[in-house]
Amino acid sequence: MGMLGNGVGDRHQPTEGEDLHEPLYVNAKQYHRILKRRMARARLEEMGRLSRQRKPYLHESRHAHAMRRPRGPGGRFLTLEERQILEAGGTVEGVENYMNQQGETTAQIRERLGLPPLP
Asked: Which residues have C-beta within 8 Å of that of residue 31, sequence separation ≥ 6?
């Protein structure tokens, strides 16, 4: 079959004993274009117009939205139910420094609702 194949079922992760430079099977109709793209990238790198570094994120607005979302233990996003509990002045296990959309902390929310401060 050579270097060109249909690629179905040919891809797997190499284990420790396997060679990392095993041929990668690609669509025969795309092979020429892949080589041409590699040559163009290499030429641009030599000229200093292309860097190998990726952007940390693709869309600024999505990144900003994710950064505003409240997070729980381990960095996971809080569910709607957990946010509602915190807005009502309750507590959720693992969440300590919650801040709502208005910038109120858990202590300020509890104070506003007339609830005693947490220990």
From this structure: 3, 4
What is the longest distance spanned by two Cα atoms in the chain? 75
Residues 6+ apart with CB under 8 A from 95: 70, 72, 73, 78, 82, 86
pLDDT of residue 20: 66
Helix runs in the chain, H state only: 28-47, 60-68, 80-87, 106-112
Q: Which residues pair with 71 in a beta bridge?
A: 77
Token reading at 43: 């030429």
Please tell me the pTM assigned to this model.
Answer: 0.45
The Cβ of residue 53 has, within 10 Å, a number of other Cβ atoms equal to: 6
Read off the tokens for 42. Answer: 């290499």
Q: Render pLDDT for 13-31 as a digit per residue (tens, 0 to 9).
A: 556 655 567 777 888 889 9
